[in-house]
Amino acid sequence: MLSASSTTPFRKYDVFLSFSGQDIRHSFVSHLREALCQHQINTFMDETLEIGEEISLTLLMKKIEESNISVVIFSKSYVYSHWCLDELVKILECKDSMQQIVLPIFYHVDPEDFQELKGSIGDALAKYKEEFMNSSDKVERWSHALMEIAKVTGWDSKNIKPESKLIKLIVNDIWKKLNQMTINDFDHGLV
User: Fold this and answer.
1) By residue range, what is the domain housing residue 38?
2) pLDDT for 49
3) 142, part of any domain
4) Is residue 165 a part of any domain in this protein?
5) Residues with catalytic function
6) What are phi and psi of 112, to 5 degrees?
7) pTM, whole model, 2 decimals?
8) Nearest Cα to 76, choosing from 64, 65, 84?
9) How many separate domains does the chain show?
10) What residues form DSSP beta bridges with 182?
11) How far apart are CA 28 and CA 9, in angstroms?
C-alpha cells in the first residue's frame, strides 16, 4: 500500500496500533493485525520492532509520527498503562499537527465512560492523581486525551457482532481511507 498523503510527507507505516497488550494482544489485536497484513496494509505494533531494537517510549512516539493512521484499541486495561496514555496524547497531537487519521475501537468497554471519565476510567485517573501529585499536568493531559478520543467516530465492539465482522469493517474502512490518500496524491501530482 502506498503510504503518502497530500498534506503530509511520505510516512513509513500505513497504520500504528495502540493497545494494552496484556488482555488483547493474542486475541483481537492479533486477528486485526493479520487482516491488515492480508490487505497489504503496512502496520506497526510493538512486536514489529527489529531484533535487538529496544522498546522505548521515544521510539514508539517516532513510530506514531511515521504512520498515516493510528488505531487506538481501548480495552479494560488500556487506561492502566502509562505508556498507552502517553501514546494517546502523542496520537492526538499528530492528529492536530500532522492531520493523522485517528480511529478508536472500544473493545468491551463503554465509550460513555471515556466521554465522562467515569467507571474504571475515573477510578484509574483518581489513582493517577494521587500517584502523580507532583506532576498533575500529566494526569490532566491524559484526562483531556481520553475525553477527546471519545468524540472521534469509531467502533464499539458491543454493537457489532461477531468479531470477524467488526474486523472486516475496520480493515475495509482503513483500506478506503488509505486509497483516498493515494488518490488525493495523484490529483495533486505528489505520487
Assistant:
1) 13-111+153-181
2) 54
3) no
4) yes
5) 87
6) -60, -35
7) 0.88
8) 84
9) 1
10) none
11) 31
